[in-house]
Every structure is written in structure tokens, then in C-alpha cells.
Amino acid sequence: MAGRRVAGSFAHVGGRRVHVREDGPVDGPPVVLLHGFGGSLHWFDRLVPLLDGCRVVRVDLLGHGATGGRAADADEQARVVAEVLAQRRISGVTAVGHSFGADVALSLAETCERVTRVVVVAQAPDYSDATFPRGGRLLTLPLVGTLLHRFAPPFAVRAVATHAVAPGFRVGSALARQALEDHRALDAGMFPIVLERRRQRLAQRPLDVRVRESGLPVLVVLGGRDRFYGARSAGRYLEAGARVEIIAEAGHSPVVETPGRTAALVLDFLE
């Protein structure tokens, strides 16, 4: 279980154990937090205490964190989260998805009537003007990607974590350790799913199109200093009918960098 820190309990869905953590009053407005590629539910540790009065449910996605197991695309991830909600009889859910978690949140909203609102955090509609670190394609290759992932030195993992926050944001030891734990727990099969197949899927059906077609209230929170996407997609989401908020000082991880501002936006959206 190295790199798979357990902070909650396990739900059993389709023969798989899924790591789930709940915080807050059971009668509070339910909020489901879905982490990004290569992360875990611990990326919301700074955000959860600020969602005052909410029933907060966090899930380690398939192939991540303490859930572990084989990788899965956003649709399969969403089916598992829907079953977790059904088992716990949770309805009226606001699904908050960070990065790849935004794909999962929208897939969940499209297929699960228990979801009534969606929050997209730091995710552009597609990869059309995305800027990713070089060498990512190597991680999608069979065997090569597995070896690169398995033997990545800690300094390389820290460099990726640094890129996932705003320039100048201090990546302390706790966040660096968490990034390393999450990297070790990640199933290498997620690399081709996110870096290759996801690019194709988003090109065919971008997230702004899905936002418009969902018919649900959607809040989009973008980081003004996001090194992957920036806030360039704000106009597209506005045209799709979403409410858009830009946190100027945040990078790709507002849930870590500016948890107070992010929580305030989510709570305001709930009201």
C-alpha cells in the first residue's frame, strides 16, 4: 500500500474497492469532489474544511490513490461515482471536477440524475491551445511509458507538481510528498487515456459543448496563471451559458493555491 494513504472507507462497486471520504453534516448540501489526472482525494485537503455546512464526498478515481487498480476513462469513472452516490442515497449533488475530474463531473451529470449542478475547475474545453511539458508522448507508449513512470526520480515528480501551480507558488514539502505518493499510486494506463485518447475525445466533443447541452447550472473557475491552459477559454464557456470566474493569482490548481477563494465561489454558487 506504499503511496496509497487511506483517509476514508471503501465502497464496493462492480467487484472493485473504491476509496471514499466523507466530511461535514449528512444533512448539508452534498458536494462531490473529483480530482485530476495523477492526483487523489488529498488534493482537496485544503479546500474541504472551508466548505462549511456541506456534506463533502471525495473519491479516489480508478487507477489513482488508495482505489488503485486499472486505469479508466471519464465515462467509466463517472459510472463508479454514480454507484457510490446511489449506495449512499445522495441526491441534489454539486459535482466539482478539477482538471481531468471536470470530464468525470460532466459525464456524471449527463448520466446521473442525482447531479444538479457542476463546477469545472482549471480545465479548458479541449487541448487546442494547451501547453504541456515536453516528453509527455513517451509516457503513452507501451512498456516505455510504464518504465518511465515506475522509475521517475522524485525531483522529476516535484517538477511536474511545480508546473501544476502558479509560477512563484511555493511547493512545500507536504505537497511535494503528496505528489510523490500520488505518482507512485497511479496506474500507468492513465497516461494514454489522458494524454492521447482524451485529446481526440475533446476535439470531437469539447467541454463547452457539453456544458451547453447539459442544461444544468455550471460554474467554471479558471486560474489566470495556469501554465497548461491559462484563462483563454473563458469566452467559450460564457457563450455556452456557464458562469465563469477567474482567480487571477491561481495556476492550474486553485483548490491547492487559493482554497479560500475557490471555496467562496463554490458556496456562492450553491446559494
From TrEMBL:
GO terms for cellular component: membrane. It holds the Pfam family Abhydrolase_6. One of its GO terms (molecular function) is hydrolase activity. Residues 31-264 form the AB hydrolase-1 domain. Keywords: Hydrolase. PANTHER family: AB HYDROLASE SUPERFAMILY PROTEIN YCLE (PTHR43798:SF31), MONOACYLGLYCEROL LIPASE (PTHR43798). This is 2-succinyl-6-hydroxy-2, 4-cyclohexadiene-1-carboxylate synthase. It comes from Saccharothrix variisporea.
